Amino acid sequence: MNTIDIITDGACSGNPGRGGWATIILYNGSVTEHSGSADDTTNNRMELTAALVGLQHTPRDHTIHLHTDSQYLINGITKWVKGWQKNGWKTRTGDPVENKDLWEALIAHTHTNVHWHHVKGHAGHVHNERANTLAQLQAGSRGAGAATRSIPRPAPSRPLPTGTALPAGTRFPCYISVVNGVVERHVTWDDCKAATHGVSGARFKKVASLAELQAQLQSWGVSAGS
Q: DSSP state, 221?
């Protein structure tokens, strides 16, 4: 069975306030982004909306792995909804369950081939970081409007030299990434983003010293000469 990865995130300015959501769909080497915004909403509603849109844009006959940094979404869909439904959409304290409309829509679009995964936010997961950027952009004062786009796979650049030696004049902080097993160094975030954005499995990190760079590569199980 074909596999699709969905990475989602939500954001809100004020909570409640203007919110944004983003969904990134990875399938067969392609990357598709969906994002949008809403007024007078909450961060939790944006997290649920992002997941719902992702499921709405994927076929039911595929294996779906949905990745989110929202504990509310993960716990709700995998643990709490059954109890809520049994209790007539009431919490254990008797209060109405918030966001019932979105939970019901998520249940309708969740099937046995959907697998839910929690990822740590702001931990260098390239697609989670990208989803966060899109959601934050949509949650801005004017928003960016609903958007969908497919992204070409970028080519790697500036590989690090073999061993621990860096090019003369290397300054810290800088960015390092691993793309398709190739370790790269980037002077700016824009360079790093251009090399990693849209690449499944890419990893990146800002490092402040040579020692931190070496420790990060070790934690990834790679060396500068990879």
A: T
